[in-house]
Amino acid sequence: MTTARSILLLHCHDLGRFLGAYEVPTVVSPHLDALAAESALFEAAFATAPHCSPARASLFTGTYPQTNGVLGLTHDPFGWDLDDPATHLAGRLRAVGYATELVGVHHESRVLADEVVAERLGFDRVRSGGDRDTVVERTIEALDRAAASDTPFYLQVGFHEPHRTPSKNDRPGVMGFLGDTVTADDSHGLTVPPYLQDDEGAREEIAELQGAVRHMDEGVGSILAHLDALGLSDDTVVVFTTDHGLALPRAKCTLYDPGLEVALMMRVPGRPDWRGRRVDAMVSHVDVLPTLFELVGLPQAPDGQGVSLVPVVEQGRPARAHTFGQLTHHIYYDPKRSARSDSYKLVANFSNAPQAMDPTQSWVRRSLPAVLRGPTIGSSPALELYDLVRDPHECDNRAEDPALADVRAGLAEALLRWMRETDDPVLNPDPLLPRHSAALAALTDAAQAAPPRERGSA
Length: 458
Hints:
By secondary structure, this protein is α/β, with parallel strands linked by helices. It has 2 domains: 6-315, 3-Layer(aba) Sandwich (Alkaline Phosphatase, subunit A), CATH 3.40.720; 323-448, Arylsulfatase, C-terminal domain (2-Layer Sandwich), CATH 3.30.1120.10. It contains 12 helices and 13 strands.
């Protein structure tokens, strides 16, 4: 079995799984669909956080936000940062002889000048920012340099699209998905996610979103075509993913599945088991780094918190019993944590924030959550428990249902254990936030009800 040496990691903003390859029929994404057909596509991949910086910090370090220190946004005025920038994937690979370069989005560590980011994270070169065409142009230049060298490369390419972007066509107070270069797309119809009210405002937003995804997909296609033209594809592992879920109500900035679900596909030359596979095992972004290390034949990083997915794909082993999510601080402090099994999810809310802290609190919305039934969305309960089989859109909170007491206990025990292992700061009650203490007590009481067989299971 041959081992590809180089890595091209493509990522974008706010996509979730909104692609044709993930069975969204109205999204035009032919280039990513073609990549998926040549890859292992993970159908149940989740971010560790439902917003940009913490999610990306986990992706590029293989550790949870509580461990790596990025519990909020890394740009001003927030300024969160990696506790140890040397843990970044680029620095780890550069230390073993890789040429490393970043093009486009950088949002996983403190936002500083490009040359400072390069030095701190271990990149030979950083050129951050830029729209799709700028990112494609710079990536093609980077690939040309890589082709002229025998050194294995790690090239990290981030698209801003389909993030919301101001446009001169936006109505006052609204920020849509168009910017100055995207055209709305309803050529194949519209897919309004079931967690939104299907009305005129939602349809207008979805048309813009579909156009932004199509726009980004064309950029991916240009990069992959150039990789092929240079003869680099047979020696390059290609990864495509996104940071977290769609920038829509009850998705981004929530711990419901639409906030944490991510597209994840890996094309691995020389390993037939990775070609054209759909993997239904639950996986986390923290698993990407150890997987890449194994795929290119490097020793595993000693301090990671993920697991390699190579045995999952090649031997059919289960990946993990739970995935975990966290939100601490987006534009305000709203700590919450979640544990998800294949069938159930438990969410613990440590503040009395609105029931769904979502991106509509950052701009005027045109779409509304389907769960709205009155003049207010109310305050978050301390615990939420959802049966994901019967209630996949997480509308019916069954945290107090006696029939699910054992399920609640098992998930609470798993969630608390994970929080302790990551030295989670929200384990320390805040005397100024009575809800914090009440939620922590409720979670602890629920975990103590777990039967012995649940204790200690991963």
